[in-house]
Specification:
The chain is mostly helical. It contains 4 helices and no strands.
Length: 60
């Protein structure tokens, strides 16, 4: 909702191509970390799991 109280549909004024691009950009980052999510799906990383991670994974 805008400050004036007008309600507009999500994505109004955005082309299908632009919407696909935006969603694609969001999905890429999730897939980049997929292995981390898989390793930690049952709880926090143990020392063994942390040893499998890269420095970038541990610092984020």
């Amino acid at each position: 909702m805008s400050e004036s109280g007008d309600v507009k549909p999500a994505g109004e004024g955005v082309s299908d191509e632009e919407m696909v691009k935006q969603v694609g950009e969001q999905t890429d980052s999730e897939l980049e970390w997929k292995d981390v999510f898989e390793r930690e799906k049952d709880g926090a990383a143990s020392d063994t799991e942390a040893a499998k991670a890269t420095g970038d994974e541990l610092s984020s």
